[in-house]
Amino acid sequence: MSTLALIDRLTRNAVDVLPHRELERKLELGRPLRVKLGIDVTAPYVTIGNGIPLQRMRAFQDEGHVGVLIVGDYTTRIGDPSGRSRERPMLDPAEIDRMAENFFDNARRVIDPERTEVRFNSEWLGSLGFAELLRLARTTTVAQILERDDFAKRFAGNVPISISELLYPLMQAYDSVAVEADVELGGTDQTYNLLAGRSVQQAYGLEPQVALTVPLLLSWDGTRMSSSRGNYIGLSEPAEEQFGKTMSIPDELLGQWWTLVVEQPVPDGAAMDAKLELARWIVRRSHGEEAVQAAEAHFTRVVREGGAPAEISSHPLPAGDGPVHVPAVIAAAFGLSTSEARRLLAQGGVKLDGVVVKGLDLPQAELAGKVLQAGKRRFARLVPPV
RNA sequence: GCAGGGGUUCCCGAGUGGCCAAAGGGGGCGGGCUGUAAACCCGCUGGCUCAGCCUUCAGAGGUUCGAAUCCUCUCCCCUGCACCA
Question: How far apart are CA A91 and CA A339, in angstroms?
Fold first, then answer.
């Protein structure tokens, strides 16, 4: 394959490749390049939004290069500047291990696990002395740090910025020094950090990395998909969830999702069909073909036809022969407050075997064995007390 | 350090002694409509043993029949001035 075609494939969907010629040059070195990506490990899932840069990593891996995933166990303690979270307590090693494992379990749905290195940044940041920190800090000026858009806005808007947050880009940059990254991947929101990596690497006498940024995937609410917003689809999330969530994206986002996620143009025809195909593709990548059929069947049955799912978990009724207090049962079965349960009840959102429930207290005989439904998606089969 | 401005329910943001569980918007939830979605309409959105009761307006005390609203102290944020290795 010609270098041009190769670069074209490696940088598909990229917004920026900085500097462009540098990538070309590095590729001609003939050695495997080290392609770095850092993701927040504290999130329950790696999202399909994070999947976009992961797909780039995969493309590099398919050409023989090495993916380097950074577990920011050390940086996590500071909290991402944009998230504006408070400093978090140090996580214990067992917890970090669990998170890292989960992280990798998600990522492997996209990348090639055989060509991946997973590195914890506490490995080098944890032993960084104050003198070394000062050396790192000297590589950058306040003005440079404040160029970063979110800092600039917060500074202008009198929103507090802590010194530790200002250090965040430097720590991330130092990761690039430590793992000797040739390329760093990230969303366009990471452009600044990726470029900081370049200048810090240079200050440490290393060849600067190439910064490759990809667009941020928008979610169904029109904002960028983010694990902290709850508007995400997790790479290892259950197939049914992935399917349903994909179907709930607005039609307007179909083009973007096909381009960025599937890396194909939207198929011609009805939006509905293109969306179904997209949902199948997403589930297939994470869980395989069988899961696709089950997830689609579930979607058709529960969402389109308003029926009950194939499998419903059981919930025992309270003991005793007296009438059963329905709000309490709903609350217990679905993890709601009884006030929420009462509201659902009052609004006709609660059904028993498909029939809207009216009363607050019902005899056990009228409940046992029936399927309780709260809203469209919550189901539980009521069984006699144990 | 000095002076001033602030901290309200998931978020933004009104409210300056009773009519405040606290306007409005966002988000979320339920119902309707529907091709999933969007749009649109209606309703709900602290908790509970729910026509009543209980706990909330940074924290702790106090004044008052009664406080998110007044006073005192504390914590945190912002602005200006001062300091400036």
Answer: 36
Is the shortest CB-to-strand distance from A254 to strand B under 7 Å? no
A122 and A90 within one domain = yes
CA–C1' gap, A155 and B5, in angstroms = 18
Each residue's pLDDT expressed in tens, for chain A with a length of 386 residues: 677 788 888 999 889 888 888 898 998 888 999 999 988 777 778 899 999 999 999 999 999 999 999 988 887 765 544 334 444 555 677 878 888 888 899 999 999 999 999 999 889 988 888 888 888 988 888 778 877 777 777 777 666 777 777 788 888 899 999 999 999 999 988 888 899 899 999 999 999 999 999 999 988 887 888 877 778 899 999 998 899 899 988 888 899 999 999 999 999 888 889 999 999 999 999 999 999 999 999 998 888 887 888 888 888 888 877 788 899 999 999 989 999 999 999 888 899 888 888 888 888 888 888 899 998 888 999 988 87
Same domain, A284 and A325: no
What ranges in chain A are assigned the alpha helix state H?
3-10, 20-27, 51-62, 93-107, 122-125, 130-137, 142-147, 149-156, 163-179, 191-203, 239-247, 254-257, 271-287, 289-298, 326-334, 338-346
Strand B–CB A324 distance below 7 A? no
Together in a domain, A151 and A250: no
Which residues lie across from A190 on neighbouring strands? none
Domain membership of residue A20 as a residue range: 3-214
CATH number of the domain encompassing residue A174: 3.40.50.620
pTM of the model: 0.84
DSSP for A94-127? HHHHHHHHHHHHHHTTTS-GGGEEEEETHHHHTT
Instruction: Assess whether A304 (CB) lies less than 7 A from strand B.
Output: yes
**Nucleic strand B under 7 Å from the C-beta of A372:** no
**ipTM more than 0.95?**
no
Q: Is residue A185 part of a domain?
A: yes
d(CA A374, CA A352) in angstroms, rounded, equals 9
Q: Is the CB of A86 under 7 A from strand B?
A: no
Task: Assess whether A152 and A295 both reside in one domain.
Answer: no
